[in-house]
Amino acid sequence: MLAAGRRITGRQMLVATSQYVVLRPLTLLQLDRDIKIMPDVETAVRRLTRSPAATAAEDTTMTPARR
Question: What angle (nearest 5°) sits at the alpha carbon of residue 34, between those of residues 32 and 35?
């Protein structure tokens, strides 16, 4: 599903949530490795509208638990 989404849109998938009931399954299934998890919609939108260079720099500063 993730690979198909990337081929169709050319973008990565984001989930905007801070709720444990959503985060826990993503973590257990290790989907948080491929899906970027943002704490809220505002942060997700800001990330999607940033330049690729700014997004790459942000990825290197995020903690592993939030990647």
Answer: 60
